[in-house]
Amino acid sequence: MTTERHKPNRRSDKNRARRSSRLMMGIAVLVAHALPQTEAATLGGYFRTGIAGSSVGGRQSCFGLPGAQARLRLGNECQTYTELTLSQILAQSNNGVYVTGVGTLAAGTEEGHAPTFRGTHGRMRGRQIYLEAGGITGLRGGNLWLGRRFYKRHAVHINDFFFWTTSGVGAGVENMRVGIGELSYAYFRQGDAYDKHKAVRHDIHMGGWRINQGGTLMTGLSLIPKSKQYKGAHGGWSLNSLHVQQTARRGLNQFAVQYGQGPGIGLGQAESVTTPASTQRWRIVQAYTWQTTPSFGGQWTIVYQNDRDHHRRRQRWWSYGVRPVIALTSHWKLAVELGQDWVKPSRGN
User: Fold this and answer.
1) For residues 134 and 121, which has the higher predicted lDDT (pLDDT)?
2) Cys-Cys with 246: which of 108, 135, 214, 288 at CB 3.0–4.6 Å?
3) CB neighbours of 328 closer than 8 A, spacing ≥ 6?
4) Are the C-beta atoms of 219 and 211 separated by less than 8 Å?
5) Which residues contact 283 (CB under 8 A, 6 or more apart)?
6) pLDDT one-digit tens code per residue, 148-191
């Protein structure tokens, strides 16, 4: 079923973006004049590419099952992708107050295409650009931030599945020490860099609960009010919980339980604002990373997701995979990957 929606006021969006940019620049200038300057900066990044072909000739083919939100990635990523991140301490005072600026530029192109950055032949995005202020009295060790940023991201590496991520454009206060954990609140006006909708999202996150030896619990509530910008819009919410356990022999276990309704079925991000409020999704994610010996490690994961649309039709997704890794020398490793995805819609197989 398709739902008509009003076209967003692009001029209004552009004006708001300009005002936000001017506000961020103004804050940076004021802070730069108020605090002593520093030159500490760090540069980091990420890069992946591959060389592959097909047994019948032609370029590489990558395999993914329709309805599955992730796929095992070893030899199964048909693209070249890179991210470069620059972090600069803009100002710092003698009493410990500081302001940091962070920016991340990402670029990618599909396999077999030159990076012309037109259409599907490449893309470039500013994935992060934000200011962070810390060391402020009264914030209980927390930080203030403003801009576009990666925020509270949790992923499984072998299938590149960001099962819980609340990244976007907004502002908030992060990691204030309260009671037995750390409290964060963020107001978002947009999701990640590829989000076409401008849904408001309130994210409340409680982390650092040390509930057992070597284990911590994190919980998050995302509230998405009904948008007045789109016809047929609905409100939604999601609740996420993640337990992270350090195990013997440098092992790490992640276990997540997630539930969302309406636009909240993004389980951290906001889905289309026209998603009916009766739409539901719940998901369980289990992932374990091991390093039994210095030369043998790996990761395995299991995902189960159950969706129900506003017609009460269900779709189920099972996924499992394992990647053992053997270090042959100090600089060379052999990795093997095995897995399967299974999607069962309410009608058909």
Assistant:
1) 134
2) 214
3) 334
4) no
5) 163, 256, 257, 258, 259, 267, 303, 304, 305, 306
6) 999 999 999 999 999 999 999 999 999 999 988 999 999 998 77
Residues 6+ positions from 317 with CB-CB distance below 8 Å = 67, 68, 69, 303, 304, 305, 306, 307, 341, 342, 343, 344
Residue with tokens 């996150």: 205
Question: Do residues 246 and 234 lie in contact, with contact meaning Cβ atoms separated by under 8 Å?
Answer: no
Torsions phi, psi of 274, nearest 5?
-90, 5
Kindly report whether the global pTM for this prediction surpasses the value 0.90. no
For 53-111, the pLDDT digits (tens) are 777 777 778 888 999 999 999 989 888 899 999 999 999 898 889 999 999 999 988 77
pLDDT digits (tens, 9 = 90+) for 262-310: 999 999 988 888 899 999 999 999 999 999 999 999 999 999 999 999 8
